[in-house]
Each structure stands twice: as C-alpha cells, then as structure tokens.
Amino acid sequence: MSQTLILTPKDYKSEVKPTWCPGCGDFGVLNALYNSLAVMKLAPDQTVVVSGIGCSSRFPHFVQTFGFHSLHGRALPVAQGLKMSRPDLTVVAVGGDGDMFSIGAGHLIHAALRNIDITVVVMDNETYGLTKGQTSPTSPTGHKTKSTPYGLLASQFNPIATALSLNVSYVARGFSSKPKELATLIEQGIQHKGFSFIHVLSPCPTFYNTMDAWKTTVSTMPVDHDTHNRFKAMELSMETQKPYIGLFYQEERQTMDETTHQLMQQSSSFDINKYMAQYA
Amino acid sequence: MSQTLILTPKDYKSEVKPTWCPGCGDFGVLNALYNSLAVMKLAPDQTVVVSGIGCSSRFPHFVQTFGFHSLHGRALPVAQGLKMSRPDLTVVAVGGDGDMFSIGAGHLIHAALRNIDITVVVMDNETYGLTKGQTSPTSPTGHKTKSTPYGLLASQFNPIATALSLNVSYVARGFSSKPKELATLIEQGIQHKGFSFIHVLSPCPTFYNTMDAWKTTVSTMPVDHDTHNRFKAMELSMETQKPYIGLFYQEERQTMDETTHQLMQQSSSFDINKYMAQYA
Amino acid sequence: MENEVTIRIGGESGEGTISGGDILALAAARWGYHVYTFRTFPAEILGGPCMFQVRISDKHVRSMGDHADVLICLNKEAFDRNISDLRHGGVLVYDPSDFTPDSGDFITYPIPFNDLARKEVQLFQTKNMVMLGAISGLFGPPLEAITQVVESKLSRSRKSNPILMEKNMLALDIAQKYVTEQLPKRDAYQLGPVEKADRVVLNGNQAVVAGALMAHCGYFAGYPITPASDIMEGLAKELPKVGGTFLQAEDEIAAITSVLGASFGGIRAMTATSGPGFSLMSEAIGYASMAELPAVIVDAQRAGPSTGMPTKMEQSDLSFALYTSHGDTPRIVVAPADVADCYTLMVQAFNMAERYQMPVIFLSDQSLTARVESVDRSVFKPIHVEERIHNGHNGANGAASNGHAASVGEEEHAFARYAYTASGISPTTVPEPGAMPYVATGLEHDIYGHPNYEPEDHTAMMEKRFRKLITAADELPNPQRYGDIDATIGIIGWGSTEGTIQEAVDRARAKGYKVAALHPKILSPLPDRAIREFIHSVKTVIVPECNYSGQLANLLGAKYGLQAIRVNKFGGIPFTAGEILRAIEEVS
Amino acid sequence: MENEVTIRIGGESGEGTISGGDILALAAARWGYHVYTFRTFPAEILGGPCMFQVRISDKHVRSMGDHADVLICLNKEAFDRNISDLRHGGVLVYDPSDFTPDSGDFITYPIPFNDLARKEVQLFQTKNMVMLGAISGLFGPPLEAITQVVESKLSRSRKSNPILMEKNMLALDIAQKYVTEQLPKRDAYQLGPVEKADRVVLNGNQAVVAGALMAHCGYFAGYPITPASDIMEGLAKELPKVGGTFLQAEDEIAAITSVLGASFGGIRAMTATSGPGFSLMSEAIGYASMAELPAVIVDAQRAGPSTGMPTKMEQSDLSFALYTSHGDTPRIVVAPADVADCYTLMVQAFNMAERYQMPVIFLSDQSLTARVESVDRSVFKPIHVEERIHNGHNGANGAASNGHAASVGEEEHAFARYAYTASGISPTTVPEPGAMPYVATGLEHDIYGHPNYEPEDHTAMMEKRFRKLITAADELPNPQRYGDIDATIGIIGWGSTEGTIQEAVDRARAKGYKVAALHPKILSPLPDRAIREFIHSVKTVIVPECNYSGQLANLLGAKYGLQAIRVNKFGGIPFTAGEILRAIEEVS
Ligand SMILES: Cc1ncc(C[n+]2csc(CCOP(=O)(O)OP(=O)(O)O)c2C)c(N)n1
Ligand SMILES: Cc1ncc(C[n+]2csc(CCOP(=O)(O)OP(=O)(O)O)c2C)c(N)n1
Ligand code: SF4
Ligand code: SF4
Ligand SMILES: [Mg+2]
Ligand SMILES: [Mg+2]
C-alpha cells in the first residue's frame, strides 16, 4: 500500500471483526475514523493507531493501519514516544474514559504541556465497559453500580474544562451518533499541528445506556463561538446538562516534536574516537 | 501529649534537624506549619503529616506529629486512605512540584473529584531539588538545566488554574517568605471541610534561585476578590507574571469521607453465620 | 449405578448456558450432593461460545473431572468445541434442529429444545429451562430441587414479571415430561436420593469476601480488573454494613498506597487485583516491607504475560510475588487451594500481616475465583482475629508488651518503632490519644524511624526485617503430607491444584503406586522442615504447575537444591486428575 | 618503593574534598598511572561528611584497595570516620589547627592547610589546592601533572575569574614547597615516573552514555533518579548532536512506555533508572516481552529496599530483574563488571534487544556509576551495531529474510509478525512506505498479532517466546574462567565485583590456594554449559554478593541445584579484595 493509491473507508477495515456489543457507540467512532483516514488519504503503512486497554481500546485491531494496543492508561506516552522519534508518522491515540481520565490522567496533563503533534480520541461512555460497568471519573455523582451500590460520591470529571485549563491546543467534542461531524473533528484534529484532544460521547448500551439521554441533550456549538477565546470555551465547557459538540478551542503554537527536530538540523553521525577525547 | 496541653510552635519541632540547604524556602513553610498547628492546638498524636519523596517531602521527619514519608508522588492516595478510614485524624499532605504535579499529577485530579477532607501543601520551587536541578512541570519554558541543555520545550504548568478547573473546594497560594500569611492559609485550609489545595512558592536557592524574582513579583490578592467566584479566580490564576498569593476559591460541599461514614451509621458487627445464609 | 455424573453444557453466552449451569449446580448441592464447577468465558462482552461443567457426586469432589460424562450442546459450535472432552461411551444431548452429529462412541438423546421453548412454552428465552427440565428427567436432580432454586433466584424478577416465572416452570415441566415419556433411558447416569447435608455453595471470590469480613477488614481500596473485580464489588456492598470503608481508586498504585495509609492508621486494610495491577503495585509492596506496615494484597492470577488472557487460568505469578520490587524485601506469600481456603487462609493472611508487620500476598487464580464448590458449612466458622498490638504509648515504650523484649529504646523520648528484637517484630503504634508519634519512611532508618545510612544500621535493620520471616516460619502451621508414608514418588504442588493432585494420588495408589503429596499453602516463608522431610522421604519429586517456567520448582531448587521432575501445563486451563496420574505413571 | 598508593581524602562536601580527589585521580592517570576511585556521598544536598579514595598504581587496578595507605583529614570528623580504614603503619595527614590525633600505628604529617590557604594564599577556598600541592610534594604526582589538570578543568571559569586561577596555582606551589622544605619524608609511598599510556579516565555512567551513542540509540526517555540521572543528562546533551531524540518523562511508567512507542517505530530506544523507578516499570517490561519489542532498561542499583539508601551500593535487584512483572516473561539480563563493560556490554545490550526482540535489563550499581577508572583507549573502539531486520514488506513475508524460516504465514494477506520459527525469532517490521501493518498487543495473540485465547495458541506462543532465550544462550559468548585449571575452590560472582574477586583470586593463589573464578555477564539466559562445567570442576563454590538474600546463589540453586557457600555483605559498601580472600581462606 502506498500513498498514491486511492483509498476508500473500507480499505481501512482490518480482517478482525469488532468484539463490541450490538449498539455500542464505538462502532460510530470506528466508522468516523475510517472516513477521516480515507478523506485524508493517510497511508496505512505510515499511520499508527495507539490505544490502552478497554472495550474502546480494542480499536487498533479493527483498523488496517499499524496499531499499538498498549497497556491500560498508557496510550499517550506510547504515542508521544513514537511521534517524538518518528515525526514523519501520523499518530492517533484512542481509548476510553477510564483509560484516559482515571489510570491515565497524569499522562494527559503532560501531553498537554508538551504539545506533541498527536491526536487523541477519547470514547467516553461514563463507565468501565470491559470490566462490566463500574463507575469511571466521568460517571455522574450518585451513579449506582456494582462498585458503588450506595451511589457514587465523587464529582463528575469535566474533561473539556481541564483540557482548556491545561491550554491544550485543539479541544473538541463529538458524539458517536453523529459520525459525519465526528469525522470532520478528527480530520481537523489530525491536521492541527500539536496535541489534539477530541472528547467523544460514545454510549455503552450494555452497562450504562446514555444513548437516548445524549440524543436529546447534545447540542451544537453556538455558531458565533470564537474558537480562539479560551475563556469563552471554558464557559461553554461548564454546560454539562446540554453538552456542546464541535470545536471548543484551537491555538497554533510550538510543538515539542518539531522544535526538537529543528535542534537536530546540524546533527552528524557518531564518532566514538572523537567523542572519547573529552576523557583522555 | 494530649489535646488539653497548651502547645507552642516549638512543641511541634521534632528532634530531627532539617537536611535542607541554608536559605531553602522550605524552612519558611515548616515554620508556618509549626505555627498553624500551635494556633489550632492540633494534638500531635492525632495529626499525620504525609509526604512523597523530595527535599520538601523530608518534611514529616521535622514535625513532632505522626508522619508518613511515603513514595515519590503518592502522598495524596496515602493521605486519602488514611482519612477515609480514620476521619477523626487531621491529615496534611505535603510535597514538591515534581512529587505532586509530575509523577503524582493523576492523583491530584482524583483527590479533587473526591473532595476528601485533607489539606495539601505543595512547595513549588519550579525544579527537582533532591535530584539536583532538573526541570519540573512548573519550570518556565526555555529553562536550561542539565536535563534540558537546549532549553525546556514544554509549557509551564499552572497548578491553580487546573485545580480550579477540577473544582477543588479550597484553592490558595502562599509564599515561603511570607510565613505569617502562609500560616493563615494553612489554618483555613485545615479548617475547610474538604480537599484544600495550597500552592506555595518556595524557592530552591541551590539549583534554581527564584527568591529575588518572587520577592518582587508576588502580589497580594485583590481585596475585592469574591472567593466564591470560580471564573474570576481562574482569571486571576492566569496572571503568572505577578502571581497572586492568598485565597483564590472556596466552596463547601459534600466530602467523600463524611458521606461514607454517614452511610455507616447503622452498621453492626460482622456475623459469619448470618452472612453465610445467602450461600446455603 | 454410581451416584456421580459430570455434566457439561456448551452454548452461546447470553443464551442461559451459564445461568442454567449455576441453577443445576445449586439444585444438586441443595439436594444433598457435592458439586464442583468449571466454566469458560466468552471473548466478547455479549455473546460468544462458552461452556459450563459441573461434577456432581455423593462423595467429596476435588477436581473438575477428566471428561464430561454428559455433554449438552445448545448449538453446533458447542458440539465441535466440546465433543473431544466427552468420555468414551458418554452421553450427548442435542437439538436435531441445530445439527445431527456424525455417530461416535457416545449415546445420543436428541431433544427439540428450540421447538419446545418456541412452540410449547411459547417463550424462546426459556430454552435453558427446557434444558434443565430435560437434565432433571434424564439424570436428576428431581424437578422440585430445580424449581426451588429457580424460584429463589427469580424471586425478585417474579414480582416484576410473573408470566416469566410461570413460563419457566412450564418449560421445566414440559421438558422433563418429554424426556421421561419419549426417550427410553439408555445410559447409566442417574443421581439417586442422598441425605441432606449442611453445606454452602459459593465460589472462591465470594469466600475471599467472607474471609476479609471475618478478619475485620476495615478498609478496601481497589481498581476493577478481571478476575478480581467481584471481590471489590462484594466488599463495596458489605463493608459499610460492618463499619468499614471502601474506595474505588483511580489506579492500582493509588489503591495499594491508600491501603498503606489506612494501615498506618491501624485499620486492617486490603486490595485485590490481577497480574497487570499487581505489577503496578510493586514499588508500594516494597515500601510496606520496608516501613513494616501490614497489608493484604490478593492477586487473582490470570494467564500472562502482560494483558495475556484475562479470563484464563494460570499459576504464573509466584516468582514475581516472591521477589516483587527491587532490593531484598521480606514478605509473606500464601496460596489458597480451594474455596474453603479462600475463607480460612484469608483470615490468616490478615493475622499474619498484623503480627509480622509486612505485606501478605494472597495468590488465588482465575479458576478458583470462578469455581463453585459445595463446602461444609462448619468451615465458615468464626476465626480468632489477631488485633494489632499498640504499645507505643507514653511510658509504654519498648516491645515488651507485645511479648518481644526490645533490645533498645526503653525510656526514650522518641518511640523506638523499629527496636531490634529477638523475633524481629518491633513495638508499633497508631495515631490515637496518648500514642507516641513516629514517622514511617521508605528510607533506611534507625530504631526511631529516623533516616540513617550507616553500614552498621543498614546491616542490622536488614537482619531484623528478615528475622521476622524466621519467626513466622517457626510459628506458622506446617502442611500435612497426603498419601503413603512409604511413598517413593512425591508430588509437591501449590495453589488451586491440591484437590486434583490428591485425587490423582488416590487413583495412583488404587493402581498400586506408592505416592504422597505435599501442598504448602504458605510459600514465603517456606515450611523448611516439612518440605525437607518430604523430599528426603521419597525417591522422585514431581512438581506439577500451570505455568511455563516451573516457578515452585525453581523456588525448591533455590532453597533445597531439589532437581524435581517438572510437569507444566500452560494453555490457560487447569490440570485434570488424569493428567497428574499420567505423570505419576510415567516416572514410575 | 613500589609504585602504588591508595590515598583517601576525608572532609566536608562543598569543601573541595571530591573535586580535589577528582583532580588527583585525573592527574595521576594522565601522568601514566592506572587509577580506580571510590567515594561516598553526603546525606545532605549541601555539606555533610564525605570521602574520596583513589588507588594509584603502575599495574592495572581492579579494586578500591583493602585500606587507605594515606589518609588526609580536612577536619576532625573526617579523622573519626576514616581512621579505622587506614592501614597499619599508614600515613595520616592533617591540620593541627583542626585537631591533634592521639598517637596510633601511623606516620603523621601535620600541615597547616587552613593557614596556608587563609594567610599565604589569602583565599580560603583554595584549601583543596593546598591539599593537592601537599600530596604532590609528599607522594606525587609532580606538580606539573596537577597544574595541567587544574588548568583544563578551570579553563572556563578562568576567563571569568583569572585571579582565582592564579591563586589556585599559588596554593599548589606554596603547599608543595612547604612539605618538601618542612616535612622530612618518613614514609615509603612515592610515585616514580612511569611511561605514558593511551588511556581514558571516566566513570561507569559516562561509559554507559558512550555505549548508548555507539549503539545508535535514537531515543531516550527517563525520569531523574539517583544514581542514574547523569545517564539521562548525558544523553539529553549528546542525542540531538547525533540525530536522536530525548524526553524527560513525567514518571518512569511514561518513560518506559514511550520507549516502547519509539521502539515500535524502529528506533533503538532506552531508559535508565534505579530501584524505585525500575519497580514502576514492571508492567511495561512484561508488555515488551509479550509484544516482542526491543528495549534497553538500565537499572543503576542502589541500596534497597524501597527508597533505601539512594547513594549507597547494593547488588539486590537481580531476583527482581529476573522475574519482573507477572506471568512467564522472557527477558535478557546483563550486568557490567567495570567501566569498560559499561561501554561494551551496553552496545551488546542494544544488539541483543534488536536480535531477540525483547527487553534487555542492564544491571549496573551505584559504586560502578561513580567509579572512575583509567581504561585503555582501545576498549572504546567502534563496535558492530546490529540493525533491526525489516522484512514485513509486501511479498517479503515470512521470516526467511532474517535467516529463520517462518513455519507459517507465507503468502498471507496479513503479516505473520509472530510466525513460529525454529529460533523463536519472528519476522518484524516498522511503519514505513511499503511495510505491511500489524498491531502490537499485550493480549495473547496468533501469528498475525490478532487476539487469540485458544489453549493450543497460548501454549505454542509461550514456547516460541521462550525459544528465543535458548537461541540466545547458544549464540552469546561464554564467560571465561579466571585462575587455576585445577582449582578446588570456585568463585562465581556477578556485576561490579569482578575485579575485586580476581584480585582476591590472585592473592589466594600467591598464598598457595587452588582457586578459580567465573563471572557471567549475561544472567538471563545463563550460559549453562560454562557454569555447569565450572561447578563440576571444583569442590566448593563461593558466591559473594553485596545483598542479603544471595540472589545469584538462589538462581544457581534453582537452575543447577547448586548449594553454594554464600558470602553476603549488605552495608551499602562494596567488597574489598581482602574480604573475599578471607572467605577463600575460611572454606579451605
Ligand atoms: C493495570 C490494569 N488495571 C486494570 C485493568 C482492567 N481494565 C481493563 S479495561 C478497564 C477500564 C475500561 O474502561 P474504559 O477505559 O472507559 O474503556 P471502555 O471499556 O469503557 O471502553 C479496566 C479497569 C487492566 N487491564 N490493567
Ligand atoms: C519512583 C521514583 N522516581 C524518581 C525518584 C527520584 N526523585 C527523588 S525526589 C524527585 C523529585 C524532587 O522534586 P520535587 O518533588 O519538586 O521536590 P523538591 O526536591 O524540589 O523539594 C525525584 C525525581 C524517586 N525517589 N522515586
Ligand atoms: S460493554 Fe459497553 S462499551 Fe463495551 S462493547 Fe459492550 S456496549 Fe461497548
Ligand atoms: S536543593 Fe533546593 S530544595 Fe533542596 S534543600 Fe537545597 S535549596 Fe532546598
Ligand atoms: Mg468507558
Ligand atoms: Mg521541586
């Protein structure tokens, strides 16, 4: 497969069939990604989809590009190490709310500060799907599950608000039932030079069915929203009752991968004899 | 030692003498804590100072209360486990910017969401002191150190802004050279029911001397600031050139420890025979 | 006819394969039989092939059985996947509308499950009840035994859905009638009446929860992971009822470190996880050993390495559990053999953690977490709980009051938390009125817990910490030898394989072999005397393990220079007694 | 007089104790002598007692020396802490204004360091130069050798501060004159001229950095930790110059997982840490083994457990390195013996990681990281670097092209990334134009990397992964026996103790003992043949280790049933040759 070929969405379908439950929101996200990749004609042999562990993190197995199905919570460091050392590749990190906001929360903060040119797609179902329905950081307060039989006592994590506080350079939200809009957000995210954070509402009908609720509450970004106004974006992010989908914020600034490789412009190959002179 | 005794700051001094360098900001923080404890007459036998690893995390050894000098980055989970199971104790977590914002960053997010009634004091010197001066998440972009010989490429982490985005219920900043003000903030933080986050500017003269700079830039909170206005607080937190010290934000809301123990009001002692009936 | 049958149900998950099996096992047990189950899990969350096997006997059942006597196939794939495990001359039950098996060395009972459910009962989802009715009619247990269980199980949904309950009963009835009227019995499996017995029926994880509660566990923090999640979920529900607190942590590092925080506060605390989470706990386990904080860590082993096969069985975390974390870090490692142990050993684990002030790693495994056994109720009796000795009060310094003379630290202004003692066990304390404060640290320290890097101090502290293992080895019970006193072949095993090994030993002895088995439940510190005696009492030692590298065999080699015959199975499925028996025959 | 002296400088850190020692060592080395240093670190960041010892000889130096021949005390505390390590009849140099030693079995040279610096040079901070001048006058090396080093070292600060440079030179001069004129030589230590040699002078960590660069390391990610930080700092500076990238990660988990990301991209990647960070890397190391990704992990061991003693030496991470992470996870473990190994073995570590597609753990230790040795420059020669074999291109499927026939997967539409091969080494590929994509996963998988839980698959994949260790054991070099062919006593050691053991062997042989030593540098897979032969060739085997539990001894027991005589030192300080010699004498 090489860049010149014309690729259609189904060329990005791998031979592994999704293990997801019927009606899982992740199907919509998968199709959206197929479309984005096809529209951008990204070469499967130079694209890597990185994930952690979870239902959503099974993702790479279903995509006919290179894939790295890593460890629970570690998609971001894996993706950053790959992009730092191979800036020529397109790197997309995917995962779930547990993966990215619970065990992986610390990495998110530092990915934001480094602004390495990767795109992360978080499939948020407000639950731990693969482990059968415990609460996640985005579960609503009071949520009753097997691990919270008396109701969840923690506040609900607001990923967009925190991403904005960290000055993430591309912040957007999508909905698995609006794959066309989502595909566009993913495309823009991949095109964006820097760390792109795409929060996707992707329901888990099996353990926490938020599908109908979201279908009614999800609202589209105010047309007049200035995507360079971080404060305004924060205000919109506080609207959790009718979550906005679309682009919240975007800013072009130095990326660590690019600047690092500029440093290397005049690099030469290693010469051990020259190098050891300092110890003679 | 028991609560009835009159305690003076020096009663909280342990027999272990600080290993800190002359002029280290942490001395100021230590004295501030001695004072807060004395003013509040906290019983040394029912107070626990928890820390991670770092120069600042040596703290507990210098305080004549119970102490838990834990692992790098883990002060918050240790403190939360202790407070959840022993709500009768006063639990103060302390540490450095590397400890709390780098390796421990993920725990900070979840401590914020749980709002367990502990107080955390972060001694931020914008460097890794104990390991001799590498960059930390709060080091300024461009900062040159042994680990960033060509200058730091990441953005500078803004702890107050992120704490506010996480709706931390008590958010304040102090300065080690203003121990009186700091002592007051610590007192209020300990009195505050919920997770109290106190960001302290505490210079490292040995590896990154920000003392003089801060002495000139640090500015006091606008008198008219409404500490219940989270948005306004965020705006003030964005002022990094002249960092405000004082209380940014405070909100009283349910704490996980208290609510959990309310659940247990009608708890009874365990009876294995009764319990096994369900499996008969 | 002997009162024993092993029935396997193969089907699609969601079809009621597992729920049907559960009902069958419970019904048989309540009717007075011993049961022992084994099941597989589908790869998908919903759907996917799975199977449920239950061995039902009037004698104590110690393994899942070499083969299925009866195989019930709910679809064609189930037949293809499971037929090889049906014993020669066994019974195959299937629905002709699904497939027709090419004849083989088995008796067949074609039963129109689908039609009976769809046409007769007119509710397809009662298919598993149809199956149960048929099983009852063909082999037992009697319908009443089954209906009782169904009623109790569905009692909740009954209120909400009375029709469903009726239909279920109808389905059981129709199918049982169908087989008794239409199918002349041609096989030998028939469960006769036995007298009732006072037993409970539960799986390993449920017993672990019971054990933790019995041990007065006051704090649990965990992070979901297969196959340990239901321990967390059980305690989330039960702890508040007995005054304990629960926390779902953001990850396993937070879970274990928060457990150490609670333990520092004097609360008996634990966590439960599986391989990946256990790996993440490494650093904190080393800390607990250094700071001498009690903690119980359940590792429900699953097939590794890495994410591996979360729903498969393996005994491959022993080496790691013995050496978790850098440096020389003493810890206790125990491994339960069966559901009863999951209760008893769990209480002991807490007691050991408190007494020896160190982490105790409890090595369960996936097969045991899901294994349902009928256990004599008397096993789940109250067990003495050793409370932590607080003696760090003013004046009460020194270790004397916990029965260990402190060699130093008497009358000091600071509390000699880590006083050198003959047993290695130092006095301890917790924050409470009148207590003498100390600071727990992961740095090397002197007897007061103050950081100290002097060679003499480090050397003495290392010896003190490890001395606790010597003390523990002296105080803890020794494993009992099973089998011939004059055995030439010895088998040393660990963990969930005990029953299987003992069954193999019995079968070998019946064939005239001289065999004995030893099954230590405490793997650190090893019961040296018992093991040395056993090794010297036999000619050859076989060490069967469900792992690749022979982890117990390595330990026995390191400790005793034993060169054992290693029998390793590592496909994700437990041993059968037949496989162990073959190993015995081969060495003979 | 023999051309050898061991000089120890004891003082306060910050006073120039260490910098003075560094200059002395470098000057002696450049003058043509072999040097070998040992130092301690203060507990505080600034200030606190420390010492620097350098052994200077015209013969190759292999250990730090049993005692100091000369002890220079810059204050009273230095005398109290170090006098016990001065050899009988050794030389004590001190300043009478600090203290007067009660006479003992040593020659004393009182020198007014403080006055000379304060009054004569009129700049107190030149005290360490005064000391160096005195050393030069009393024992050598000549002043020119020292001034040369000082000039090169201070060349930068000279521009900024020319006066300081002058004062330094003055101080050297004054002190040297003082001792030659005022102190009649009463001891036997005098370094005479030797011919120059082409050597480099550096410590273990500096050699590791050189090795990584020689190995074409293209990515380093790390997190600061003592005593590994300067590996990170060295590569942060050097990598960009040779086209490599560097990342200071937020923690060790991010460091190692980002290394795996880079490795997946075909970049030779590494990290460096110490115990606590190594513990945190457990889960990811298991992943690398499962997904078969090359990675080099340097663990600069320090005294444990837990945070332990960050600035002290210990060899106590071997057991953990052998079994890091849950499940059966093959990995390679190597341990350098000296500064030369830090370079050579580092390049080999990268080659092994690439060839066998697994993590390679490089076990250095604190003493080696800080040990400065003079090494023949020829050691630091170019070494062949084994590039990763990319053969996952269209049409080019199957492992044939890396010299291993793929048993399956030819002509497939998907790439058989994990094809079964005789060697266990499967074909691999990286993202690049024309490559055939695959997905790396920690789940058990089939030859295409697709998740697969079938028992047959798991069994075969486990065997394939471990087969790589058998292949490696065949292909990798065997350790060379040192000492008598007809030895009755054998010593097996590992890591930084080799030179010390060899010196002890020589001293024992000189006393007439029949001794030999074997020092495997690759500890997983162990060189079975070489070790078996060695064990069988001797009567008793001594295993000396700087740890409590005898971690190599345990491994040898597990593998070969060897019951060795364990000699363990665990105070945080390396063995001396004398201590090993004593052990040899005791078993004889
Ligand atoms: C270290 C570790 N801890 C726990 C697990 C178990 N586990 C697998 S997926 C998962 C969370 C899944 O939730 P999420 O990330 O939201 O993905 P989803 O299944 O909801 O798509 C957990 C806890 C694991 N695999 N590894
Ligand atoms: C797991 C682990 N990684 C790394 C280290 C080494 N280490 C000790 S302190 C520290 C950071 C110190 O910085 P900070 O937390 O800001 O504290 P400071 O010394 O500046 O007060 C590091 C990286 C460690 N002890 N444990
Ligand atoms: S469990 Fe939920 S998240 Fe997982 S596949 Fe099923 S529907 Fe999707
Ligand atoms: S190094 Fe810096 S932070 Fe550490 S003690 Fe010294 S001044 Fe304080
Ligand atoms: Mg989720
Ligand atoms: Mg700091």
What would your notes on this structure say?
The complex is a heterotetramer, with 2 copies of chain A (280 residues) and 2 copies of chain C (588 residues). Chain A has helices at 26-40, 75-85, 97-103, 105-114, 159-165, 179-191, 211-217, 230-237, 256-263, 272-276; strands at 47-51, 66-69, 90-96, 119-124, 170-175, 196-201, 219-220, 244-250. In chain A, α6 (179-191) links the parallel β5 and β6 (196-201). Chain A is 32% helix and 15% strand. Chain A starts with 25 loop residues before the first helix and ends with a helix. In chain A, strands 2-1-3-4-6-5-8-7 form an 8-stranded mixed beta sheet, with helices on both faces. Chain C is an alpha/beta fold. Chain C has 19 helices and 21 strands. Chain C has helices at 17-30, 76-82, 113-121, 127-139, 143-160, 162-182, 204-214, 229-238, 252-264, 275-280, 282-291, 318-323, 339-356, 366-370, 455-475, 498-510, 528-537, 551-560, 577-587; strands spanning 4-12, 34-39, 49-57, 68-73, 86-94, 106-110, 199-203, 219-222, 245-248, 269-273, 295-301, 332-334, 359-365, 372-376, 439-441, 482-483, 489-492, 515-518, 522-524, 540-545, 565-568. Chain C has a 7-stranded mixed beta sheet, with helices on both faces. In chain C, strands 2-3-1-4-5-6 form a 6-stranded mixed beta sheet, with helices on both faces. In chain C, β4 (68-73), α2 and β5 (86-94) form a beta-alpha-beta unit. The radius of gyration of chain C is 26 Å and the shape is globular. The interface between C and D is large, with 68 and 69 residues. β2 of chain B pairs parallel with β15 (439-441) of chain C, so a sheet runs across the interface. Bound molecules: thiamine diphosphate (TPP) (2 copies), iron/sulfur cluster (2 copies) and magnesium ion (2 copies). One magnesium ion is lined by residues 54, 96-98, 125, 127-129, 136 of chain B.
